[in-house]
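hey can u check if this looks right to u? its 339 residues, i copy pasted from the old doc so theres a chance i mangled smth
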Amino acid sequence: MDYRSAGVDIEAGQRFVQRLKGIVQTTYRPEVLGSLGSFAGLFAVPKGYHQPVLVAGADGVGTKLKIAQACNKHDTIGIDLVAMCVNDVLTCGAEPLFFLDYLAVGKLQPEQLVAVVQGIAFACREAGCALIGGETAEMPGVYAPEEYDVAGFCVGIVEQSQILDGSKVKIGDAVVGIASTGLHSNGFSLVRKVIAEKGYRWSDPFPLDPTYTLGEVCLTPTRIYVQPILALLRSQWDIHGLAHITGGGLPENLPRCLGQGQAIQLYANSWTVPPIFPWLAQEGQISPANMYQAFNMGIGMAVVIEPSQASALCDHLCQQNLPSWIIGEVVAGDGTVVF
């Protein structure tokens, strides 16, 4: 017996890592020390901070992976992975610095995984963070040969005095919602249940826009908000809080950026809901409450801002192809969202 006969090909893994080196290096920032292949990634703390605070986040993409594998389309999953992590770190007011990934596979499929890592690298460049390391684990018996799972880890940095932790939010603040690109990376167990029980295939045309298949619509990658939001934080905008709308939707995620004794009143019909959401609701006979609990409903990031600046912020973001709306306001309450 040897390791290969047990289902793990060490030499193939080494060749795979060599293929990744050029991809990974395209994400490097000046603070990166060393190169891919060490036991750990090295990153120098950026200059210019007086009281730097490190901010860390970890996430995955859930069962959206099952759709990517069913469609044999793997170039966007890496974008989702990075987006879920960097958007979370961003909500503290932090700039993402570096990223690490973890890939677990049943059997190493180099072309499949190179596409995943290319997506990770693309998203890291878009977010301005460096991909400084990761791990690929071949795990026969845990995953089927064509299956894989991914997880990501991001570290960012923020000046201690500029941390967004709810303390700056005040009653009367406006809530500006920035559009999502669709489903992002949450609610896919429910999506897959609807598709399966209604007898659809991922290759079927999306009924509301037949130029796309259902698989293509569902695999639209998560929007990365890092660069436009960092630009706001570094300029004249009086931003008091940020919320990344992920699992649990608006009801669970908006209150996470509030202070004590505060709630959010949402304005009904104040933003454009992408067609995938009402279509899923109709096909699955899903109640509005369950839709809002499972999905972002068209809002990927929320900005709590001085109310006098809210309208101008929407105009500013729309000019950057980021559709935005005033979707609510901060009111007195107990950490809930009122529709």
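The radius of gyration is 21 Å.
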